[in-house]
Amino acid sequence: MVESLVIAQHVDESHEGRDLLPRTAKERARMRELIATIAGKLEITPSHARDANAARKRIGEGRAALDAALSDGRAWLGGDAPMLPDLMVWPFLALQERDGAAIPAHLQRACAFWARAKERDSLRETRPRTLSVRADSGR
Fold first, then answer.
1. What is the third-level CATH fold of 22-126?
2. What percent of the chain has pLDDT over 70?
3. How many CA atoms, within 13 angstroms, populate the side-chain half-sphere of residue 93?
């Protein structure tokens, strides 16, 4: 398996511990929708894109979607605790930040979300260190 979402779902389904997706079909569908609409727009960095301006626009849309998804006051996309959508977004935010593309301050909920994520040991221990392949290679 090479696709990160597929791997994450496999780990969630095959290992004991806290679930990364909710138990009900409706809630799982909502989490998958968040992955598609937010992570799908964040999975690029301007310096690794063929068109940096298009990448910045797409990232801006993803960050705005992240901010809007948190508008109900939840701490995480998954609610009270990080779930699969959160885990799928974090690596992209880390790469973009390292690339010099921090979340704009006017997206306060997204900034607070990212600040909370960076405080987690799980993120610090698994944060991407290098990027050796273009984010849009093969597309």
1. Glutathione S-transferase Yfyf (Class Pi); Chain A, domain 2 (1.20.1050)
2. 89
3. 25
